[in-house]
Design a protein that fits this description.
Layout (H helix, E strand, L loop, with lengths): L12 E8 L3 H4 E3 L6 E3 L13 E10 L7 E9 L9 E4 L5 E4 L7 E4 L1 E3 L7 E5 L6 E3 L5 E4 L13 E10 L5 E11 L7 E2 L3 E7 L7 E4 L2 E2 L10 E6 L8 E4 L2 E4 L9 H5 L3 E10 L6 E11 L7 E2 L3 E7 L7 E4 L2 E2 L8 E9 L6 E3 L5 E4 L10 E10 L13 E11 L7 E2 L3 E7 L4 E5 L2 E2 L8 E7 L6 E4 L7 E4 L16 E10 L10 E11 L22 E3 L9 H25 L4 H5 L3 H13 L30
Parallel strand pairs: 7-14, 16-23, 25-32, 34-41
Antiparallel strand pairs: 1-4, 2-3, 4-5, 6-9, 8-12, 10-13, 11-12, 13-14, 15-18, 17-21, 19-22, 20-21, 22-23, 24-27, 26-30, 28-31, 29-30, 31-32, 33-36, 34-42, 35-39, 37-40, 38-39, 40-41
Length: 638
């Protein structure tokens, strides 16, 4: 209000604005009657946007008078600031803020900014509600991480809508704003499995496709792809294609298990597999699982031979321990070809002629052979595998049998034999042709391979061997015996013929054996006379009388004289030992002269009695001289 008066009594004055600054009349109005300056309805005053002071040039004059009778004054209005403005957020994130888990405490998330248009006024920041995970600086508006953020912690939200209230310094006015924070998963957890190592035992004959184990693994990371798990089977070259892994399922195949391998034996019948379990995060994290598979050996295969029937040949004169033949069998189970050969039957002779080495399969000669006694033997052999199974023998042993035929080859080891070896016969001197047949044979050679020859006693070649076919020959005469004493020719009446019989088995003359047969022929002279007066030819029938005499004798074997001599020597030694035992305490002379011992005993007694000895004249004066003569014992001479 402007105070003004007119000195003239009763004179009223009026007020009017002559000039103003900064559109003052827009904001203020002057009442011309009372001089009151008032605020107009519009526009409102705003300290923060409008001028801070307004100036008016006001004139006061008497009402009804001219302008010359007035006074002019300047009115200045200063606008004072009033706390009437709420703070204004100048920066508030519009898009969600993404933050990784496991960030360090105190990590800056965002800095909010706000202003208060009131002069010299400041702002304060705070969260609306409680958010333990974050902290806001009330002065600077900086939002930081205040609590460990773990995406996998179920107590930690995965996102937050944070409401922030901004106050002025007098806490009279405030403004709120919101922004969103989203927690992002970090691949900070490798896959975890229920077991880190598996130990499995399998039989060698486990079929392909058999399920071994289901791997149970998880990834604690809470979001894809960090939590997605893949499995990868790692094998050595020997285990390749023996096992397969589909997802988390481990199975046998596509190949069969095989423990019958030298490499696998060096691995102690054990497969060692590794499964790499990985997630798909960045970086990729993985875990290794070890699977140990122990294979139990199973005796699956039987021994197999080159044939089930074997034929061997051996010479009949082969020495003991001669190799007859070897059976060849194989066994594909580990240990390879670990076989035992056993004779279980057949015809081996009595006593058995053969034995078998159990480890080598060799059949050897145990006793001497004689083809003439037995020419063929049949042997049944059982072949059994050894230590081919995890179970101890003989629980799962497998075996095979083989038939063995042993042929004994003939050897010319038997000389020909004639029965009897000595013949004696009597014939008439007029006999011509065969008169006695030899009976000779050879156990090694047939009759056709025996040859006969007169080697001695055939005086004047009076005798020949006459043979038809392969039968033994007959002894024959081919000439007249001469017993005509008038002509001075006289043949012997007794012939002792030696016939040599020789074999040649198979035409082999290198190993011929021979025997000699003795034939004694007594020739009876016989003269046929003709009648002188007869002129008519008469037919005469001549009958030959042959007298045969067979002598038998005992021909012991070659070993008999040796045994007889040895027996006699043993008998003499026994008699000597018995005599020595009986007479060892008797003096030598009494063995032949029974009274010798009595005479010696009497003489000894006489020498011991001093009163019975001869007395000498000097026995008292001189010592008797000792006798220098030795007593004569039987057999001693003076």
């Amino acid at each position: 209000m402007i105070l003004s008066r007119d000195p003239d009594p009763g004179q009223e004055v009026e007020f009017l604005i002559l000039n103003s600054s900064s559109n003052a009349t827009t904001y203020f109005a002057l009442d011309s009657l009372n001089g009151v300056i008032s605020k107009t309805a519009e526009p409102p005053l705003d300290y923060e946007t409008n001028p801070k002071h307004f100036q008016f040039v006001v004139a006061v004059r008497a009402r009804g008078r001219g302008p010359t009778e007035s006074c002019v004054g300047t009115v200045t209005l200063h606008i004072q600031d009033v706390n009437d403005e709420s703070p204004v957020l100048t920066y508030m994130p519009d898009a969600p803020l993404h933050i990784h888990e496991n960030v360090p405490l105190g990590t800056k998330l965002v800095t909010l900014t706000a202003t208060d248009r009131d002069a010299e006024d400041s702002v304060r920041y705070e969260f609306v509600g409680t958010h333990k995970e974050f902290f806001i600086n009330e002065d600077s508006g900086e939002v930081t991480v205040a609590y460990p953020l773990d995406y996998e912690d179920v107590g930690i939200p995965k996102s937050w809508v944070l409401r922030v209230r901004v106050y002025d310094s007098q806490w009279a006015h405030s403004t709120t704003g919101t922004f969103t924070v989203i927690l992002q998963d970090v691949n900070d957890n490798p896959p975890r499995c229920s077991q880190d190592i598996y130990v499995i035992e399998l039989a060698e004959n486990t079929p392909v496709g058999t399920h071994l184990v289901s791997l149970a693994c998880i990834d604690m990371d809470g979001a894809f792809p960090n939590s997605n798990i893949t499995y990868h089977l790692i094998m050595d070259p020997f285990s390749n294609e023996t096992f397969s892994l589909t997802n988390n399922e481990l199975k046998v195949g596509p190949k069969h298990l095989n423990s019958d391998n030298a490499i696998f034996v060096g691995m102690h019948f054990k497969y060692t597999l590794f499964v790499k379990v990985s997630d798909e995060g960045s970086p990729v994290l993985s875990t290794m699982i070890t699977v140990i598979i122990r294979v139990i050996r199973i005796n699956e295969l039987e021994p197999v031979g080159t044939t089930s029937a074997f034929t061997f040949s051996i010479l009949e004169n082969s020495p003991v321990d001669t190799l007859v033949g070897k059976l060849t069998f194989t066994d594909a189970d580990w240990p390879f070809n670990n076989l035992k050969y056993t004779i279980i039957g057949g015809h081996l002779g009595m006593p058995p002629r053969f034995y078998m080495e159990p480890d080598t399969g060799m059949i050897k000669l145990l006793e001497s052979l004689d083809r003439e006694t037995e020419s063929q033997y049949k042997i049944v052999v059982r072949i059994t595998d050894m230590d081919n199974d995890a179970a101890p023998d003989p629980l799962r042993q497998r075996s095979a049998t083989a038939q063995v035929m042993v042929n004994v080859l003939n050897v010319n080891d038997e000389p020909p034999m004639c029965h009897p070896p000595h013949l004696e016969t009597r014939i008439y001197s007029t006999v011509k042709g065969p008169f006695i047949q030899l009976n000779c044979s050879d156990t090694d050679s047939p009759q056709g391979q025996l040859s006969y020859l007169i080697v001695g006693g055939n005086t004047n070649n009076q005798f020949t061997l006459w043979r038809l076919g392969v039968d033994p020959p007959s002894l024959a005469t081919g000439q007249h015996f001469q017993y005509d004493g008038f002509q001075g020719i006289q043949d012997p009446v007794t012939f002792q013929l030696l016939v040599q019989v020789t074999d040649e088995l198979g035409g082999n003359t290198a190993r011929q054996l021979s025997a000699t047969s003795t034939i004694i022929v007594h020739v009876v002279p016989w003269i046929t006379s003709r009648p002188a007066s007869s002129t008519k030819a008469a037919s005469t029938t001549m009958t030959t009388s042959v007298e045969r005499k067979i002598l038998y004798y005992w021909s012991p074997d070659s070993w008999f004289p040796a045994v007889l001599t040895l027996t006699g020597a043993l008998l003499l030694m026994c008699l000597y030992a018995l005599s020595w035992c009986l007479f060892k305490d008797v003096p030598a002379c009494s063995r032949l002269f029974p009274h010798c011992d009595q005479q010696r005993s009497h003489s000894n007694l006489a020498a011991k009695e001093p009163g019975l000895g001869p007395r000498h004249g000097n026995s008292l004066g001189k010592d008797p001289k000792p006798s220098t003569k030795l007593s004569l014992l039987p057999g001693n001479h003076q």
